[in-house]
Amino acid sequence: MSLAAEAFVSQMAAAEPWPENATLYQPLREHQILLSDCASSLAVQAYLRMCNLPVRVSCRANAEYMSPSGKVPFIHVGNQVVSELGPIVQFTKAKGHSLSDGLDDVQRAEMKAYMELVNNMLLTAELYIQWCDDTTSSEISRPRYSSPYSWPLNHILAYQKQWEVRRKMNAIGWAGKSLEQVYEDVSQCCQALSQRLGTQPYFFNKQPTELDALVFGHLFTILTTRLTSDELSEKIKSYSNLLSFCRRIEQTYFEEQDRDSQSGASHHSKGPSLI
Amino acid sequence: MAAPMELYCWRGDHGLPSVDVDCLTVLAYAKFAGAPLKVHKITNPWRSPTGILPALKTREEGSFSQPSKIIIQLRKQKYNADYDLSAKEGADTLAFVSLLEEKLLPALIYTQWVDAKNYVDATRRWYAENIPFPLNFLLPNRMHGRQLERLRLVRGDPALEPGEQLEKELYQDALECMTLLSQRLGSHKFFFGDSPSSLDAYVFGHLAPILKIKLPNNKLQQHINSLESLRQFCNNILVLYFPSESRELPTRKVSPQAEGGDFDNEPHKRRNQILSVLFAVGAMLGYAVLSGIITIKHTHAQLEEPHIEEEEDEEEEE
Prior knowledge:
- The complex is a heterodimer.
- Chain A is mainly alpha-helical.
- Helices cover 59% and strands 6% of the residues of chain A.
- Chain A has eleven helices and four strands, in the order H-E-H-E-H-E-E-H-H-H-H-H-H-H-H.
- Chain A has a four-stranded mixed beta sheet with strand order 2-1-3-4, with helices on one face.
- In chain A, helix 6 crosses helix 7.
- The longest helix of chain A is centred in the middle third of the chain and has 27 residues, at 105-131.
- Chain A is globular and about 45 Å long.
- In chain B, strands 2-1-3-4 form a four-stranded mixed beta sheet, with helices on one face.
- In chain B, helix 3 (87-114) crosses helix 4 (116-130) and helix 6 (164-185) packs parallel to helix 8 (219-226).
- In chain B, 33% of the residues are buried.
- Chain A binds chain B through residues 2-3, 69-71, 105-106, 108-110, 112-114, 116-117, 119-121, 167-168, 171-173, 188-189, 191-193, 195-196, 198, and chain B through 66, 87-88, 90-92, 94-96, 98-99, 101-103, 149-150, 153-154, 156-157, 165, 168-169, 172, 176, 180-181, 183-184, 186.
- Chain A: Its main location: mitochondrion.
- Chain A: Residues 187-249 form the Metaxin glutathione S-transferase domain.
């Protein structure tokens, strides 16, 4: 969002309380959504649950095109539309809900750095595996991405997306990496996260922050998604504190709240839960 | 250990050992780890073993180009500046390097390569003056195109154009990143204790160009000058590990700032001008004589052949 629009939105946002009919839009859960988008969407859902803000999840085939920045998920709150976790965190902050107010300057610096680590390494690795690995791309990503469309649009859109992602990988220097190196990078990233988490319940001790939501979103999705090989989820399973971290958040924020609410729409049914 | 490795980097200027971010990172790491490298400072990337700079050439294992790969290779040869770091500090290193690459690097690319005034007045000029002929006509434009493309792909917006709004967004991220780094550094000498590590090398590599390279449009430089701890950090490293470069700074400062000082840049310009004018005049005279527009009369032949003189007179009239 541009700065002027951001300031305007913050001003408007601060004026109104969080409405009951806030909606989160993502691609179709069963047939269309891919690993990276599912992870981002779950991260936003986890964050909103941690803030105790109710949101309905609505699945649309053209969610990517509806989004103001072209990336999913995005939320529709009142008469504003905000996409991606970073701007959503700022938006909720303008409304007076924030998880990271209790952190001091050094901790806030670390939190932002670790969020960038997840975006830089985990998200990029997910994109690489989905679109640059030929097996996964042809068996899973392209069929799923183009499932709502008919021939020939499905082929065109799928190849266009693949080409775009490959060019991006080229620009940031990931094109020369092999799959093993990417798995190695994921392992390093998980090791760093595991080190930082240690034995604490959340990354910054007792209270969860947006970093916890982001990490949960990515790790949980990787653990519960079936890809052509299990190597990615095996890498994560080797860190027991990360596993128990995911389980804890799932139990605290997803299962208990679902038991109270009637609609099962917010319960991710993509794969089996961790328990 | 093994035979010394060779490192190819961009040349330095403005008091820096190198003008390129990646080269600075690698040079700093090598100094911190005490690696004995033979450093070649060149201005022609086609002469490097991999075609891009920086490049590390080892005897046994070939050549490497990206900073992360080079640092891994140096570690393999037992030159490790991160030996004393705890596991948590290693994790923090990864995190902060990601922060640098996601938030600071796009703004750095924008300010040097995409911002129109900066690119034309400073960056392109430096590269065009320093890259040898004939590549200096080809490479700066190509690098400009590549950097713009990279910015477009990273932002996910294929129609990105340099403009005030993009500049504001990128700079806001970068200023926030610098503030976060300054808060994390606090009043310490280096990020982890008293001896520098790879994170210090990366931070130095990204911040030193902002601090030292003078650009017409320099919002980033203004901000970093206000962050005392980061300025101290960079100057500290320059003085401790690159003393010869920082001593050069006072003498080099004069030439980029002299606007009408063309004669400073090209001491032979006056001589070249005079020679070229003389050459042109000589060429015109030679053509005139050879084609007969002007003839040189031999006075001693006048008495013997008067009729030929008349013919020559007629030719002259034509």
